[in-house]
Amino acid sequence: MNSYIGPEETTDTDLLSQQELDDYLHKNPDIETVEVLLTDLNGTLRGKWLPIENAKRVLEGNFKMPLSAVSPDIWGRDIPSLCAATGDGDGICLPVAGSLKTIPWLKRPTAQLLLKMTEEDGTPWGFDPRVILESVYQRYRALGLNPVTAPELEFYLFLEQRNALGEPQLPDSRTNGQTKLGGQIYNTDIMHEYADLLHEMREACAALDVPLDTIVKELSPGQFELNLYHVDNPLQAADNAQLLKRIIKSVAQQHGYIASFMAKPFADLDGNGLHLHASIVDDDGNNIFDDGTEAGSDALRHAIAGLQHTMSDTFLMFAPHINSYRRFKAGSHAPVAPTWGYENRDVSMRIPNGDSKARRIEYRVAGADANPYLALAALLAGMLYGIENKLSPTEPQQQGYSDIEPSLPRTWTDALKSFQSSTYVKQQLGSPFQNAFTALKQFEQDEFAGNISALEYDTYLVLA
Q1: Count of Cβ atoms closer than 10 Å to residue 53 Cβ
Q2: β-strand 223-228 against 212-217: which pairing, if any?
Q3: How confident is the model at residue 346, as a pLDDT?
Q4: What per-residue confidence (pLDDT) applies to 378?
Q5: Strand partners of residue 37
Q6: Which domain CATH number covers 90?
Q7: How high is the pLDDT of residue 186?
Q8: Residue 229: inside a domain
Q9: What confidence score (pLDDT) does residue 174 get?
Q10: Section 226-238 average pLDDT
């Protein structure tokens, strides 16, 4: 079993070059401001606005933010124990190559630039989700392998106003009226009702080089799914997913809607998933999951077994919030056990049929509220763990969720315990990340535990 190997020093090809900056400024002389953006452990973008003339500071390694900037809680507050551990010192923020783009939905000419963080001595910062994914990716590259991945993101459109109980409100549609019994899955008439919004999302993806594939009307009212093309660099895939979420939220806001990736907004309607498609190609372009048969190769089965073995340990990375666990119940199209099967959507890992050259795993565990960098890191680390240790999976599942005894963590607390105590997480993803994510999620759990809900008042204030 390979232990965690931290990321190597950043190479120049990973970073925005002076030539790339000069070319961008030559083509976009009207740009006034650049938003420099880190992704924190919860998947939230954190950063600053810089005058465009100061962009060179970032190239030169002279732009700093606190090391704790990637580890606040979901409300944007510092975690005292993490600040104490780092002295709340500064890290160096380095610009990601290919990420300097004009933000198309803003009135003022503004660019965005993705960052990753290192310590003062150049060591990649172990709390940074992009760094964590990069460390896993480097282990694949050392073996001459490239993970090919594609995310599918589900989301709801809500009205900006909530009802008197504080619940989100679904928009009515001409096609469906006010009924909430169903969302007319795959109904293109409903999509035409939102044509301006959906086309603006597609156009924004094109402007930001986010490789959008299909737009789908999903199962529930107000629910949609946007899918991305497969790419052979998981860092790019995670960047694409993160930017897609930003595009969806921002364009929806321009049209007066809230686009929500909350895992389970309603108890009686389907949740939002983040389905991850993954295969592995070697440096000659051969898919190592393909052996010319419908069953797939031994490497495919080893990868599945690795994911089965590690799913409980990393479940917190796929279901990071208290609301995440409302997805996981029988009949909800969300997995309750580490099962797999061929062309079966009622398992954790579906092996789609079709051309054997495209043989892949569709990993159906993560909610749309997951951090795409951490979700991909957990997925790819588990696949590699199974391949390197030649693990064997269970038999492929034929039944649906209603016939399966739940065995994955059922609560946020249980998932945190599995993650915190996991030797696998420590060895494969690093103790700095394990400690930071544990502290963050414990801090958030304590906050929820210390608050009294409206339901408790409604239930006990008079009757108790």
Answers
A1: 11
A2: antiparallel
A3: 87
A4: 98
A5: 47, 114
A6: 3.10.20.70
A7: 82
A8: no
A9: 80
A10: 97
The residue type of 361 is I
**Bridge partners, residue 118, by sequence:** 92, 124
Within 13 Å of residue 437, how many CA atoms lie on the same side as its CB? 37
For the chain, the domain total comes to 1
Is residue 79 assigned to a domain? yes
Domain assignment of residue 61, yes or no: yes
Contacts of 191 (CB under 8 A, 6+ apart): 198, 215, 217, 224
Residue 364's pLDDT band (boundaries 50, 70, 90)? very high
Would you list the DSSP string of 168-213? --PPPBTTTBT--S---TT-HHHHHHTHHHHHHHHHHHHHTT--EE
Q: CB–CB of 147/280 below 8 Å?
A: yes
Bridge-partner residues for 341, per DSSP?
Answer: 350
pLDDT in tens, 376-394: 999 999 999 999 999 999 9
Give per-residue pLDDT as tens, 129-145: 999 999 999 999 999 99
* Count of CB atoms situated within 10 Å of the CB of 427: 17
Q: Which range marks the domain in which residue 68 is found? A: 12-127
Max CA distance (Å), the chain: 70
Return the DSSP state at 332.
Answer: S
What residues pair up with 43 in beta bridges, in sequence order?
Answer: none
Torsion, CA 401, CA 403, CA 406, CA 407, rounded to 10: -100
Residue 338 CB neighbours (<10 A): 24
Residue 378 lies in a domain: no
pLDDT at 184: 83
- Quick count: other Cβ atoms within 10 Å of Cβ 409? 21
